[in-house]
TrEMBL record:
<protein>
    <submittedName>
        <fullName>Uncharacterized protein</fullName>
    </submittedName>
</protein>
<dbReference type="InterPro" id="IPR001360">
    <property type="entry name" value="Glyco_hydro_1"/>
</dbReference>
<comment type="similarity">
    <text>Belongs to the glycosyl hydrolase 1 family.</text>
</comment>
<keyword id="KW-0326">Glycosidase</keyword>
<dbReference type="GO" id="GO:0005975">
    <property type="term" value="P:carbohydrate metabolic process"/>
</dbReference>
<keyword id="KW-0378">Hydrolase</keyword>
<dbReference type="InterPro" id="IPR017853">
    <property type="entry name" value="GH"/>
</dbReference>
<dbReference type="Pfam" id="PF00232">
    <property type="entry name" value="Glyco_hydro_1"/>
</dbReference>
<dbReference type="GO" id="GO:0008422">
    <property type="term" value="F:beta-glucosidase activity"/>
</dbReference>
Length: 202
């Protein structure tokens, strides 16, 4: 199983923002991982969403618990979050339930932010909160306008920095079994204008 794992970093050291970061991780990651590892949704998510979140029967819970051997991490980027104390609770929805505001210093191409330190935090999060289940980095890339040049210093620096932080996470004990950067993928709406791949094809 692979998930889109964007790291949510508290913008400040204030408790409210730290809690906002934790909520964002629960709603974006725990929602998918905890059922297949532990047989149920995260407790904090159930408290926030209440009866609007479907529940598993005992049989369903038993069936899905421990049903994955590893988790694939599409860990391309990170973003800052702050607590949103003015969210509209009258119209509950997925992002409203998070109770966070997202912000970032844009440093890349079309909303993907350069934050290599986030990859270390991602793999350490898996080690700390999810019993250090084996993981593979299943997506990692940096989108730039498509050109014919192979003098690609920007992406070389991207991979060098991300791999350095990945090594730090592995050295701390994270069970990362492999990494699969995009070899020749052109994806989503940028298919013809942006390349995130590692291999140049003439």
């Amino acid at each position: 199983m692979a998930i889109w794992f964007r790291w949510y970093e508290p913008l400040t050291i204030f408790t409210e923002d730290k809690e906002a970061g934790a909520r964002a991780m629960v709603f974006s990651v725990g929602w998918f991982i905890e059922p297949v590892l532990y047989g149920d949704y995260p407790i904090s998510m159930k408290k926030i969403v209440g009866s609007r979140l479907p529940s598993f029967t005992e049989e369903e819970s038993e069936c899905i618990r421990g049903s994955v051997d590893f988790i694939g991490l599409n860990a391309v980027t990170s973003i800052y979050v702050t607590d949103d104390d003015q969210r509209n609770v009258s119209f509950p929805g997925y992002f409203e339930e998070w109770g966070v505001k997202r912000t970032a210093y844009r440093d890349g191409y079309n909303s993907v932010y350069y934050a290599p330190w986030g990859l270390e935090k991602v793999v350490n999060y898996m080690r700390t909160y999810y019993d250090n289940i084996p993981t593979y980095v299943t997506a990692l890339g940096w989108g730039l306008p498509s050109t014919t040049t192979v003098n690609d210093d920007v992406r070389v620096e991207f991979y060098a920095q991300y791999l350095q932080y990945l090594i730090k996470g592995i050295s701390a004990g994270a069970d990362v079994r492999g990494i699969y950067p995009k070899l020749s993928a052109l994806w989503f709406k940028n298919m013809l204008t942006s390349k995130t791949n590692l291999v140049y094809k003439s």
